[in-house]
Amino acid sequence: ARELPGYARRVLDALEDAGHEAWVVGGWVRDALLGVSGHDVDVTTRAPWPEAARVLRAANITVHETGTAHGTVTAVVDGMTVETTTYRVEGGYSDRRHPDEVRFVDDVRADLARRDFTVNAMAFHPARGLLDPYGGRADLAARVIRAVGSPRRRFEEDALRVLRAVRFACRLDATIEPATQEALVACAGELDDIAQERIGQELDGILATGRAAWALRHEFAVLEAALPELAPLAGFDQRSPYHAYDVLEHTARVCAGAEEFAGGLPTRALRWAALLHDVAKPACWSVDDSGRGHFFDHPRQGARTLRAVMGRMALPTEVTRAAAALVELHDLPVSATSVSVRSMLAELERRASGQARPLAFALLDLKRADAVAKAPAFRSYATELDEVGAALRSALAAGPVYRVRDLAVGGEDVLHACGIEPGPRVGMVLEQLFAAVMAGELPNDRATLLAQMRW
Ligand code: ATP
Ligand code: MG
Q1: pLDDT-derived band of residue 93, with 50, 70 and 90 as boundaries?
Q2: Pocket of ligand 1 contains residue 161 by CB under 6 Å
Q3: Which residue range or ranges hold the HD domain (predicted)?
Q4: Could you read off the pLDDT of 27-36 as tens digits, one per residue?
Q5: Best probe residue, ligand 1, of 116, 162, 191 (max atoms within 8 Å of C-beta)
Q6: 376: pLDDT confidence band, cut at 50, 70 and 90?
C-alpha cells in the first residue's frame, strides 16, 4: 500500500496513544491498493466522538464537530482534513433512505459490515496492516464490485447503492458480480424513493469517470430508473441511412467520443450534453403530409428536457446552462470561416453568457463525437471540424466580435455621433452595427463604425 500521509498518521497516533483503536477506512485504502494517491483519508475509531474530539484537541489538532449525529468529527492537520467517525452500524431503514438510527459499536468488523461493497469495506493501519474480512483486496485485483452481505438486503436498505455500484464499476473499470447485478436490477425501481439531488450527484459521478458509455450499454436498467427520460432511447431506430445504431447505442458512442475528442478532459457540461443530446429525438419524430419523417425541433426540446432534469437534480446552474446550450446547438451548421465561427460564439454567448469561448471547443468536440457515432463513414466529417477548430482559434486570437460589447464602439459614441438622448435607441444602433459586423459586412474598425453610425 501507499505510504499513509503524515497528517493522517498524526490523527491515528493521537487516538491510539490515548488507548483508542483507530483505522483508516474506505476510499483511501481502496485507492492506495490500486496505487492511486490523493484520496482523502477517513478514519474510523472505537472512541466515542466526544472522546475522539477531546483526545485530538489534546494533541493540538483542530477539531470541527461536523456530523456528530453520525459520530463524525473533522480533524484538521496541516490544513488537511480527516473525517473521524466512531465505529457504528445503522439501524432499520424504514423509509429506504435514511437509517432510523445510528448505533455505535466497539468492533471495527461490525463497522466494515455496514459498508456497501467489498472494495470499500477494508481498513488499514500502518502497524497492523490490512483488515479485509470480505475479500475486498481480491475483488479489487479482479475488478469486481460485490455487495457486502446479502445484495438484495443491502440495496433494499439504501437504494442509492444501486447507483453507487454502477459508479464504482465505471470508476474502477470493474464488472458487477452476478448476484449483486441481479439484485441491482431487481431493486433499481427503488431509486424512486431517493432524493433527486443525490441521484444527480451519483449520475454526475458516473459521467465524471469517463465511462458513461459502459454504463449505458451494460447497466441501462439502472440509468433508466435513475433518469426515466432516457427510457425511449433504447430500441428507437434513427430512421436514417446515415445512422448505423439506435439512439441508445448512438448516445453511448457519443459519450465515448466526447472523452476521445476532448482528450480525456471533457467538461462536466460536455458530458451531460453527450448523455442527453438526443434525448428528445423519439418524442420529436413526426411524419409530414408527403409521408416524409423529420425529427422536428429535437435539439431545442432536448435542451428543455436537460434543463428540467438537471434542475430537479439541483446540479449547478452554470453547468446546466452550458450543457443546454451544447444540446440546443449540436446540429448548428458550422464552417471554417471567420463569420461562421463568430456566429457560433454569438449563439453560445446568448445562451451561456461568459462561457462562449470554452463552450465553442466543447461544441466542436460534441459535433465530432456525434458525427463519428452515426456510422464509421463519418470520420471524415471530424476532419472538417478540425478545420473549424483552427478557424475558431485564429478568430479568438484576432480578438473576435461575438457580443455587442466586443464592438470597437460603445454607447457613448452613439450619443455623440447621433446626437440622441440615452435610452433604448442607443442599444438599437449598436445592435445594427453588431449584426453588420457579424455578417462580415463591416470590419470591427472604430473609424468605419463611427462613420456608419446613424439613427
Ligand atoms: P469517493 O472517492 O467516491 O468519495 P469513497 O469510498 O470515499 O469514494 P464515499 O461516498 O465518500 O466513498 O463514502 C466513504 C465510505 O463510506 C465508502 O468507501 C463506504 O465504505 C461507505 N459508504 C458511503 N456511502 C455508503 C452507502 N450508501 N452505503 C454503505 N456504505 C457507504
Ligand atoms: Mg469519499
Answers
A1: low
A2: yes
A3: 247-372
A4: 999 999 999 9
A5: 116
A6: confident
Query: What pTM was estimated for this model as a whole?
Result: 0.90
d(Cα 448, Cα 444) in Å, to the nearest integer?
8
Listed in order, strand segments (DSSP E) in 278-399 are 285-287, 293-295
Q: Which atom of ligand 1 is the closest one to the Cα of 40? A: 7
In DSSP terms, 44 is beta-bridged to: 23, 85
Number of Cβ within a 10 Å radius of residue 354: 12
Q: Beta-carbon neighbour count of residue 62 at 10 Å?
A: 12
Cell 445510528 belongs to 102
* Burial annotation 383-395 (CB, 10 A radius, 16+ → b, else e): eebeebbebbeeb
3-state SS, residue 442: coil
Residues 279-333 pLDDT 10s: 998 888 888 888 787 888 899 999 999 999 999 999 999 999 999 999 999 999 9
Domains of the chain by start residue, with CATH: 1-141 (3.30.460.10), 143-226 (1.10.110.30), 231-402 (1.10.3210), 405-452 (1.10.246)
For the CA of 171, the nearest ligand: 1
Q: Nearest C-alpha to atom 9 of ligand 1 is from which residue? A: 27
27 lines ligand 1 (CB under 6 A): yes
- Expressed in angstroms and rounded, the spacing between residue 120 Cα and the centre of ligand 1 is 7
pLDDT reported for residue 341: 92
ipTM, two decimals, is 0.98
Closest residue by Cα to atom 4, ligand 1, is: 27
Query: What spacing in Å lies between the alpha carbon of 379 and ligand 2's midpoint?
Result: 39
Q: How far apart are CA 432 and CA 375, in angstroms?
A: 42
Give mean pLDDT, residues 257-275: 90
CB of 160 within 6 A of ligand 1: the answer is yes
pLDDT tens digits, 377-405: 777 788 889 999 999 998 888 777 788 88
Please tell me the number of the ligand nearest to residue 155's CA: 1
Task: Give the pLDDT band (50/70/90) at residue 92.
Answer: low
Q: Is 116 a pocket residue for ligand 1 (Cβ < 6 Å)?
A: yes
